[in-house]
Design brief:
Layout: H1 3-16, H2 18-35, H3 41-55
Helix pairs in contact: 2-3
InterPro entries: Antitoxin_Rv0909/MT0933
Protein name: MT0933-like antitoxin protein
Organism: Sinosporangium siamense
Length: 66
């Protein structure tokens, strides 16, 4: 299994667990902001928003909780 296969599997798992994925992305964003002394906050926010759109199948806003 190559890296591409692993990333594809990870993306499929993330799409199936939108709430958990959202929480992990927010935690990772906060960690990165702290580690970079908030120098790249805007870029991090844009990246997290792009990932959230991807994992929420293009839906705007927060994932639905079931």
């Amino acid at each position: 299994m190559g890296v591409t296969d692993w990333l594809r599997k990870a993306a499929n798992v993330a799409k199936g667990h939108a709430v958990e994925t959202d929480e992990v992305l927010k935690d990772a964003e906060e960690f990165a902001e702290d580690r970079t002394a908030h120098k790249y906050d805007q870029q991090l926010e844009e990246g997290v928003e792009a990932l959230e759109r991807t994992f929420n199948d293009g839906k705007e806003g927060k994932p639905e909780q079931t």
